[in-house]
Amino acid sequence: MVAASLCIAAASVSDGLRIGAFSAADPARDLPKDWERLTLSKADRQTSYDLVAVDTTVAVRAVSRGGASGLIRRQRIDPTAYPMLTWRWRVKGPIAGGNAFTKDGDDFAARLFVTFDHDPGLGGRLKRSALRALGYDDVPTRALNYVWANRAPTDTVFASAHTDWVQMIPVERGSTRAGAWVVETRNVRADYRRAFGEAPPAITGVALMTDTDNTGGSATAYYGDIVLHRAARDTPVNLDPHRD
For residue 82, what is the DSSP state? Predict the structure, then answer.
């Protein structure tokens, strides 16, 4: 049954799996197709997300003012077949008081999570229940979190300040590239092995988040298309079908 679902997913896009086809979306829609809101009961305010026309394309705009929430697409994907993740994003600037190593500073202008199908065992399930009781509603038992950090060194891997189930990987740092679209490409399979010391299980979803609830600041980010593709490519992934 799992293999069949992976095959269906793999056949959905000719150049890879277009997890977030935002550029082809109607900006009049509330949310992109197949994506849902991911709320955190611990946060008094929610980040707002909407589809907007920007720079001749359509993207997801996230605006956070002392709040936290995300968007998620739940889809089961084989990371062995599709190990490469490419996306583009743009931020107004990093979180001034952000600190990736502390709970009080755990805010980011832009995040992209990849979640995995990992069974944490009985002890892990009890831990998950405890985290939910603290307001972390949809806690993944294994996730990679690619972030636009304030000052954490890029391409390092370290545990989230809240749980070692989530491993942080800063891919951008500071304001040098703020205000411009930035394309990122990561080998999810290699990053998972580096973070958790073993081969990854199936991917279960991809989530976006812009959050400022811990620092009380504000942030604006734009998320462009997100594609999972095979390792060998002769040409770059086209993240916007409206562009040449």
Answer: S
Distance CA 7, CA 244 (A): 29
The answer to whether 144 and 194 are in contact (CB under 8 A) is no
Topology at the third CATH level for domain 2-229:
Jelly Rolls (2.60.120)
Show the beta-strand stretches assigned E in 29-68: 36-39, 48-54, 57-65
Cβ–Cβ under 8 Å, residues 110 and 150:
no
Strand 48-54 relative to strand 57-65: parallel, antiparallel, unpaired?
antiparallel
pLDDT in tens, the chain (244 residues): 333 333 323 334 456 899 999 999 999 988 999 999 998 756 678 999 999 999 999 999 999 999 999 999 999 999 999 999 999 999 999 998 999 999 999 999 999 999 999 876 545 555 555 555 545 556 667 999 999 999 899 999 999 998 888 999 999 999 999 999 999 999 999 999 999 999 999 999 999 999 999 999 999 999 999 999 997 654 556 666 444 3
- Does the pTM of the predicted model rise above 0.90? no
Task: Map out the domains of the chain as residue ranges.
Answer: 2-229
